[in-house]
Design a protein that fits this description.
275 residues; elongated; six-stranded antiparallel barrel; 23 strands; mainly beta; five-stranded antiparallel sheet
Length: 275
């Protein structure tokens, strides 16, 4: 575990901040803050380079990049903790965007890259994406989420090279939610097995056509073992993110620049989940 310097705030009667610098000694004098590190004396807050400490000392050790450490903030949204909710967005009231991750008691895959934020009315706004969901093969926690949908049992499977055409009975409703690039699975017992990626959906019931065509070339696919298998599909959760599901959400913000930044508030658009 890395070493941190804790600071005590009399206003909150606690230790609210962790600083990444770890001095040998520190002292306040004449309205300045001084620390000692490796036999050198440093005065803090005297230049424009934020989050950069003991650069000379780290350079002597041969690791000058260790002088800079990003800023990070960790907090929680926990209103109505007995209700399942979808945490859909993050809104940062500040003068720059941050990278963010969001974990709940159900999912630990929410994230927003720095570049995903858009500036709207002096705030930085973005939808929460899901990392690891929609992966191939899919992760076990994804099977209980709304991005997973079943179709039914096939009547025939035609394989030509790396293309498989999966026919369904005319009474089987493929549905309008399925789309190109969704991930297609068949069931082996109770375990979904990745078969390929959807390339087309063909429905012409008057002509007896009701099938799904998949590309079986992606890595991690398994050949469909028979002509009558039960199929389901999983949508790409990064492209079609709906947020993260849980009773509460812990968010982590990271700022990787060495310039001044101010953050006044963090907000999330939340809706109650009705399973």
């Amino acid at each position: 575990m890395p070493n941190y310097t804790l600071t005590y705030d009399e206003g909150v009667q606690g230790f609210p901040s962790f600083y990444t610098y770890y001095p040998d000694w520190m002292i306040g004098m004449n309205n300045y803050f001084y620390t000692f590190k490796g036999g050198n004396l440093y005065r803090h807050n005297v230049n424009e380079n934020r989050n950069t400490f003991y650069e000379d000392w780290w350079t002597q050790l041969g690791t000058p990049l260790e002088a800079f450490k990003p800023s990070f903030i960790k907090s929680v949204f926990n209103t109505s903790p007995l209700e399942n909710k979808l945490f859909k967005t993050l809104n940062l009231e500040g003068d720059d965007a941050w990278a963010a991750t969001m974990d709940t008691d159900i999912q630990d895959s929410g994230f927003i890259d720095y570049d995903y934020f858009e500036k709207k009315e002096q705030s930085w706004y973005s939808f929460v994406r899901n990392e690891g969901l929609g992966s191939t093969p899919s992760a076990l926690p994804e099977y209980s989420l709304r991005s997973v949908n079943g179709i039914g049992e096939s009547t025939n499977v035609t394989i030509v090279g790396q293309t498989s055409t999966i026919d369904f009975a005319l009474t089987t409703e493929i549905g309008s939610i399925l789309s190109v690039d969704d991930y297609f699975y068949f069931l082996s017992g109770n375990t979904p097995v990745y078969a390929g990626t959807v390339t087309s959906i063909n429905k012409d019931l008057r002509r007896g056509v009701n099938n799904v065509v998949i590309d079986t070339s992606p890595a991690g696919t398994t050949p469909i073992p028979s002509t009558t298998e039960s199929f389901l599909y999983i949508k790409n959760s990064v492209a079609e993110s709906h947020g993260v599901l849980g009773h509460y959400a812990v968010f982590n913000l990271t700022y990787t620049k060495d310039t001044k930044v101010e953050l006044f508030a963090v907000e999330s658009e939340v809706m109650k989940s009705y399973p």
